[in-house]
TrEMBL record:
Keyword Metal-binding applies: yes
UniProt cross-references to Pfam families, sorted A to Z: CytoC_RC
Organism: Pedobacter lusitanus
Keyword NAD in record: no
Record-given protein name: Photosynthetic reaction center cytochrome c subunit
Length: 131
């Protein structure tokens, strides 16, 4: 009888452990956000960053510095690279344009449909043409 209880308890414990892997986990929270909403989800932030990469034809390391502890990884919170502050300025600029001329109220919201965005000028290039 005692062995049967131990087996049942072990099976229940194993089931709980296995099912906990399918439960929603605490999302990764970005730090040092100065323009985007501080409560943005990891998925929304990735979607926005993927849009920037496509619009400028670059990879993450164009704006994000390598980690000091592990140079093979990026330090996303670091402000070491000037391109990151330039990006913030461009985000603010496009937000002002979208609000003023196209009456888009929440231009920095992740799901906002914008009239003017990065690709408008960059067209897949890291630096927009002077035309």
């Amino acid at each position: 009888m005692r062995y049967k209880a131990i087996i049942i308890l072990s099976v229940l414990l194993a089931t709980v452990v296995m099912l906990s892997g399918f439960m929603p986990q605490e999302g990764k929270k970005a730090s040092n956000l100065k323009v985007l909403p501080k409560d943005i989800s990891h998925e929304e932030l990735d979607k926005i960053m993927d849009g920037y990469k496509a619009a400028l034809g670059v990879k993450c390391n164009f704006c994000h510095a390598a980690s000091k502890e592990n140079p093979k990884r990026l330090d996303f919170a670091s402000d070491e690279k000037p391109e990151k502050e330039i990006t913030r300025s461009m985000m603010k600029m496009t937000s002002r344009i979208n609000k003023k001329y196209f009456h888009i109220k929440n231009a920095n919201e992740p799901n906002a449909i914008l009239a003017v965005n990065c690709i408008t000028c960059h067209r897949g290039q890291p630096h927009p043409a002077d035309k």
